Amino acid sequence: xxxxxxxxxxxxxxxxxxxxxxxxxxxxxxxxxxxxxxxxxxxxxxxxxxxxxxxxxxxxxxxxxxxxxxxxxxxxxxxxxxxxxxxxxxxxxxxxxxxxxxxxxxxxxxxxxxxxxxxxxxxxxxxxxxxxxxxxxxxxxxxxxxxxxxxxxxxxxxxxxxxxxxxxxxxxxxxxxxxxxxxxxxxxxxxxxxxxxxxxxxxxxxxxxxxxxxxxxxxxxxxxxxxxxxxxxxxxxxxxxxxxxxxxxxxxxxxxxxxxxxxxxxxxxxxx
Length: 272
Description:
By secondary structure, the chain is mainly alpha-helical.
């Protein structure tokens, strides 16, 4: 028993140390974004919000933030729709080559982003979308849709196929059964997919850097600032990006967590 507690304590300490090591650079950015000194260093010379105020009045950063929000919103909607469609096809139909279909649908996140960025640049240039927000959205949908598909497909795995067939037997068309049975059942996963896709898009910079042109997103603007100067505003922008990402991922976790709790309560009420 004592050895089990010792092993558990050792594993817990190892996990805490690993997370501390991973999060230390992010926490240092947040801490130094409030430091009055232009160059980061310890001890602090004083607390200030000046770098955040400088970020808010910088037109290039404001434009990058607006572009990121537009792209993230459009990407979330399109990637979730695409992910739902791909997941439903996998759930609903059997056809030759289904394994290949799922492999191709899941492929984009496994491709190195520099290769994906170059491929997107060539393709979008050929169809006249390079250098536009629409081009960035296309690239981000390709990256984010597999995440949405995975979330929704896991939810569909719990859907009793008899429910949809019962709707058909009661006179519902395929589309009506989809809208009134499948979509409501998948609502928590769809909400989580929207948040995850938005977070993926808001953080992504490599594909956006290749195809954005003058329409920079916030991560691309941050990269340009890093190349051109050393400014405490970089810490402030990084903190904002991190905060938005945390909020979006938290929304996804809350959506999935509430659904899991409802399932547990329903299972408990249905138990003999």
